[in-house]
Amino acid sequence: QKEVEQDPGPLSVPEGAIVSLNCTYSNSAFQYFMWYRQYSRKGPELLMYTYSSGNKEDGRFTAQVDKSSKYISLFIRDSQPSDSATYLCAISGRSQGNLIFGKGTKLSVKP
Amino acid sequence: NAGVTQTPKFRVLKTGQSMTLLCAQDMNHEYMYWYRQDPGMGLRLIHYSVGEGTTAKGEVPDGYNVSRLKKQNFLLGLESAAPSQTSVYFCASSPRTGGTGELFFGEGSRLTVL
Known about the structure:
The structure holds two protein chains of two kinds.
Chain A: E1 4-6, E2 11-14, E3 19-25, E4 32-38, E5 45-51, E6 54-58, E7 61-66, E8 71-76, E9 85-92, E10 100-101, E11 105-110
Parallel strand pairs in A: 2-11
Antiparallel strand pairs in A: 1-3, 3-8, 4-5, 4-9, 6-7, 7-8, 9-10, 9-11
Chain B: E1 4-7, E2 10-13, E3 19-25, E4 31-38, E5 42-49, E6 56-57, E7 65-67, E8 73-78, E9 87-94, E10 104-105, E11 109-113
Parallel strand pairs in B: 2-11
Antiparallel strand pairs in B: 1-3, 3-8, 4-5, 4-9, 5-6, 7-8, 9-10, 9-11
């Protein structure tokens, strides 16, 4: 079992839809959870960061961590065509550990 | 604001040729990383550095060498390129490692090995 599993999609939704992106992980020691966004032919950039369990909201984006299920989610409300990108989850077990990335989910938001 | 700059952005090599990818960051970050990104494989860590003069192996280090002679630069070398090294290479830097340190990525270097 890989340490981080992420459905690669692609996922296509109409503008205004609520998008749910998910990752599962195998090691309960992971404590730091991040979502990166990568536009086509660009490098990834940090979108959201959460520590341990719970929710974190930033505008139209909500990151959710359920450590009991080893499940992390990113919700996008009122999705826009500019949200079309690949979204990568990333996790780390400790403050001094390297990040482990999911394979990324490609999202397309149609006008 | 330059951030992380990678050169070259594109390169085509023949099998057996050598080349060096250069990464430069102007944020005074201690940590630097080289990743490769392949379809269906996600981002995989090749080598990383926790400071000037130090390097360490990541998940897929075979066939690559690195050097960090200056804090702002991290070089990735391919001594004898193979078609399996066709990929998009990303350099990243961070003020800290792990979950508390955001990674800042360059725009990538697309390498094709024929």
